[in-house]
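can u do me a favor
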């Protein structure tokens, strides 16, 4: 039997959340170590939050920033 799950949808900025292969997922040329550390943290946090929600029965969806921009960012 189908049980309805609660739904959470995140809108992720392509830059901060590292949308792979995306036009907006750029890396600044200066301070590569600083950015790598920052991005690693935000990715780890995304995974953590998603897993916590999944574990408590939420369905988690992601909408990327580029999907909300028209139409250049659409892939
Ligand atoms: Zn994107």
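np, heres the sequence
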């Amino acid at each position: 039997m189908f049980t309805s799950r609660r739904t959470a949808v995140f809108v992720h900025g392509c830059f901060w959340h590292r949308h792979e292969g995306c036009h907006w997922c750029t890396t600044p040329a200066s301070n590569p170590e600083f950015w790598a550390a920052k991005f690693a943290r935000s990715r780890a946090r995304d995974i953590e939050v998603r897993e916590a929600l999944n574990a408590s029965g939420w369905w988690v969806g992601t909408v990327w920033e580029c999907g909300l921009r028209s139409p250049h960012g659409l892939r």
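The first helix runs from residue 32 to 55. hope that helps!!
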